[in-house]
Please model this.
Amino acid sequence: MRLTPEVKQFIQEHFSEDTDKLLLTAKRFTGIDVPFAVDQILARRRIKDKLPSWYNNEDLIFPSRLSAEQCSSEVTAHYKQRLILGPHVCDLTGGLGIDTWYLSQKAAETYYVERYSEYCEAARTNFHTLGADSIRVISGDASEAVQQLSVDTFYVDPARRGGSNKRVFALSDCEPDILQLKPLLLERSRRVIVKISPMADIEETLRLLPETREVHILAVRNECKELLFVLENPLSATIIPPHIYAVHIISQEEERVFHFDFQEEKDTALILASQPATYLYEPNAALLKSGAFKLIAQRFDLAKLHRHSHLYTSDTYRPDFPGRIFLTGEVFDFSGKVLKQLSKQIPKAHLTIRNFPLTVAELRQRSGIEEGGDIYLFATTLSDNCKVLIQTRKAEKN
Model:
């Protein structure tokens, strides 16, 4: 597994070509390990947007295509730097090493643990290339490494795939088994950071991980990417309610954060609107995942369209709202007759479904409205259970 000058030149010259054809004609490339080079091409294609600095470094090596698919993005890895406690850190599920590399920038001593030897080999090469020779690479199983190490912070990103490469979301189905390993992790560290599938149920996971002090929901480009559970050994038998951070990462320099705890959400009164007002507010993906649906209305002085619609409205413009803001136009009662006529008035629109009986595809098929334009059409349910279509345009920032 070496990036020779010849292999690097091959990657540059054939980067945009059909990789299947390259593999079929491998014999014509004398002295080139074409399957290895193709893996490098496919891995680099995957990381172009989420790991731009690694993509631009032609000396870095990728142990597999899967490693590039499963690794953290640079912006989420950078965010995790602020979560570590103390100078001694261990990444128990090293993988490609993105998280390890970023964590090492804020730690005096960093361990990278990985059970696959080829990943360890690639990590040693990459860390040296990046000038991170202080990272200690350990080839072995996470459960065995924990018994040998004592650090301030353990970071764990369990493999969320089952048999036949099938994705899984339950903690008990992940490798390593966090529930089994948790007592030892907390015994041999001050803090444990666990990365969970963004599809996981937060409240159910908290039931399984009652030592959680913080939950960080990370969304990038309005797509929920990671759930981070920060665990610490309780100082007493009293369980402290965890703090929830819904974070929309716009760039490495800019983010929008909404923080709360579940008891605060439970204690907040529901504020409902009778009809859509001047502005319509759509929370970002991290906020929607957090479940702070009543608090959103309270903190920004908004009213909710329906208990389950998760859209908000007001006559006052709230520029700090963590999500998209629209100017409300005409409101159409939902019916088959209205749908048949609507495409004449709105031939193109971006469709969003919130608490509505049809999917976007079904709504497009029945209405004939095409994708595009500057109109945003929200199909939703109002507080009186009336189904409506709300015509909107993006609100310009004042």
Summary: The chain has three domains: 5-68, 70-262, 268-394. Residues 34-47 form the longest helix (14 residues). The chain has a mean pLDDT of 93.
